[in-house]
Design goal:
Elements lengths: L1 H11 L11 E5 L6 E3 L14 E3 L4 E3 L5 E6 L5 H13 L8 H4 L2 E4 L8 E5 L13 H12 L5 E5 L3 H13 L25 H18 L2 H12 L12 H5 L3 H7 L2 H16 L5 E5 L7 H18 L2 E6 L2 H5 L6 E7 L2 E5 L10 H9 L7 H12 L3 H5 L8 H17 L1
Parallel strand pairs: 5-10, 5-11, 7-8, 7-9, 9-10
Antiparallel strand pairs: 1-2, 1-6, 3-4, 11-12
């Protein structure tokens, strides 16, 4: 493990690998404020009670740590922010002073480094730019991804290797500025993407299982899968432990699962296979295709891997369920007004908070935003009693809707 750290420092010339107590910030170029990253948990030196022991090493933890969350509305810039972090984190310190990198963003401290950058996204509409400033770096990334190795790892639906090959063909047609290296454009998004087939993903899953066994990480995989297997949906596919779930042919098992199960298991196996000490995981919309309890279980699994591997993660999400599992000190809200972007701290403690309260605080969801209020207003206008309205619903109006209707009927009575 320490050899891996040393190699990153030697080849990347990084002055500092991240520590859980490191004060880290990333300032996207053109944004009003930096994203401050705090991976530590509050000090509990006065606490003498029991701790949780997680992972095969039985590491003691109490409050959540190692994982930061950015949340915001659609189009607020969350995915772009993750992409920019990946591109600057991948760049060597000697390149971070170049105008092309400065136009993306900057870290503080400037030379902080990560042994690996693992980007995870299962959106078919993703079009972020892969890290790498020169065509030589892209060639290396494509080669590394094919070999399931290297410093940049992509986990998801896009066929990055084929995209990179297209980019290299285009780059070869341009003049090289120096040393035969072609400076690539620094835009945030690409105009064309390619997707993997389902059989490609199944083959990839089977390779990940083999890689985990070769790395001696089967025990970690079992620990990370345990929260997923506790979800009742896995009982329906006879999945209460890894051996029975995968059988003798992981590839065929993968093809038989639902979309949500495929994604959750692919994420966990990829993290166990690829994460090393001081890795940075960038996970875009982990809630995609997952019901809320399975989303929470996946976050538990991710935290187990982070603790065991001494790694760090930044998540971009719309899900208040994920906020509910995260301390406010680890949460930032991304807001966009026209072409102005800002990053704010939540106005309340998010950990354990009511999902409705989190939704209101984060997205500003009010009666104006919700269709059911308009429908209830019509019912209040058209009926004269609560019983008449309640008879339309089986078993009955919810508590929140009942309170809203009663208030509306009271206002109606006062006005008449």
């Amino acid at each position: 493990e320490f050899l891996s750290d040393a190699r990153a420092i030697l080849t990347g010339n990084f002055a500092a690998l991240p520590d859980i107590h490191l004060e880290l910030a990333f300032h996207p170029a053109g944004w009003a404020r930096p994203l401050t990253l705090d991976f530590s948990a509050p000090g509990t030196w006065m606490y003498s009670g029991p701790h949780r022991r997680i992972g095969p090493s039985g590491r003691e933890t109490l409050l959540p740590r190692r994982l930061n969350v950015i949340i915001g509305r659609n189009g607020s810039g969350k995915s772009t922010l993750l992409s920019r972090i990946a591109r600057v984190a991948f760049a060597a310190p000697s390149d971070r002073g170049l105008a092309e990198i400065q136009s993306i963003g900057a870290f503080q401290p400037p030379s902080v480094g990560f042994t690996k950058i693992i980007a995870i996204s299962y959106s078919a509409f993703d079009n972020f730019i892969v890290p790498g400033l020169y065509d030589s770096e892209l060639r290396q990334i494509a080669s590394d991804i094919e070999k399931s190795s290297g410093r940049y790892i992509y986990v998801g639906l896009r066929d990055i290797v084929e995209e990179v090959r297209d980019d290299l063909t285009a780059a070869d047609q341009r003049a090289s500025p120096d040393e035969g290296r072609v400076l690539l454009p620094a835009q945030d998004q690409r105009t064309a993407t390619k997707l993997k087939s389902l059989t490609q993903l199944a083959d990839e899953f089977e390779r990940l299982i083999g890689q985990i066994a070769a790395n001696g990480d089967d025990a970690l995989l079992d620990s990370a899968l345990a929260p997923l297997f506790a979800d009742p949906s896995f009982a329906e596919i006879d999945g209460d432990e890894r051996v029975t779930l995968l059988g003798d042919t992981p590839r065929e098992a993968f093809l038989s699962w639902s979309t949500g199960h495929k994604i959750a298991l692919h994420v966990v196996t990829a993290l166990v296979a690829h994460a090393v000490r001081k890795s940075l995981i960038l996970f875009d919309e982990p809630e995609m295709h997952l019901h809320p309890p399975l989303t929470a279980a996946l976050m538990h699994a991710v935290r187990i891997v982070l603790e065991e591997k001494d790694a760090f993660a930044i998540l971009a999400t719309h899900s208040p369920v994920i906020l509910q599992e995260t301390l406010a000190r680890h949460v930032r809200i991304v807001r966009r007004t026209g072409e102005t972007f800002d990053i704010l701290a939540p106005g309340l403690e998010t950990f354990g908070e009511n999902v409705g309260t989190l939704t209101y605080d984060t997205f500003g969801l009010t009666a104006v935003s919700t269709d059911y209020h308009e429908i209830l207003d019509l019912l209040v206008a058209g009926f004269s009693s609560l019983d008449e309205i309640n008879e339309l619903f089986t078993p009955a109006l919810s508590g929140q809707a009942l309170a809203y209707v009663m208030a509306g009927l009271a206002r109606k009575a006062q006005a008449s």
